[in-house]
Amino acid sequence: MERCPVCQARLKQDPACPRCRTDLSKLLAIEEQADAWLHQAFTELAAGREAQAKHAVEASLRLKRGPLASRLRAFLAQGLRLSSSPPFPKKAQ
Ligand SMILES: [Zn+2]
Fold it and tell me: With a threshold of 0.90, does the pTM exceed it?
């Protein structure tokens, strides 16, 4: 989280907003949990455990919508066919 969701002030290390003093510690904890789930999803994917990876990325997205988690979910939804074709087709030149 870069900006306060209440007043849009740029945030620093402090869990309270420097402008409106909103306590953001719970939100920051949720964001941290979402990142931990996303990390778990990549760990599961690396180990070839697709179902667990899907579960972890869904758990991450329930807490926070991010572009990386969204794309990982889309990637997993295609189904992994690691042995046959590459997951991303080459663009036409
Ligand atoms: Zn604020």
Answer: no
